[in-house]
Amino acid sequence: MTRQPLAVVVEDSPTQARQIAANLNRHNVATVIATDGPEGLRAVDEHHPDLVVLDVNLPTMDGYQVCRRLKRDASTANIPVVMLTTADDSEATLKGLEAGADDYIPKDVFAAENLLSTLVALGIVKG
Length: 127
Known about the structure:
By secondary structure, the chain is an alpha/beta fold. It has a single domain (6-121), classed as Response regulator (Rossmann fold, 3-Layer(aba) Sandwich). It is built from five helices and five strands. The protein has helices at residues 14-26, 37-47, 63-72, 90-98, 111-121; strands at residues 6-10, 30-34, 51-54, 81-85, 103-106.
């Protein structure tokens, strides 16, 4: 029996965090929710997830900082990071990819669909 994939969702909006978690759960991905950068880093360290879904606009430490820390640490560097955010201009996208994000998805009407496509491409869920 294969283990259920796990995602850490780092999102400061409780409503959006629940929506992202529900979408992931529909695709058999378990979730742990963190509401800011430091909590997200602790959750990744504690749970060793298969994926991190990360907002950019977070209190205390922004998503770019969280992503850079994850990618610099040998124990977390290989965990895919998907930035899912309202910061959707080309400069923000480039900054996210330069921070080490594996994908950068704007929060729009296609976000759930795009996240699923990324999960399939990463091999976390079957298409």
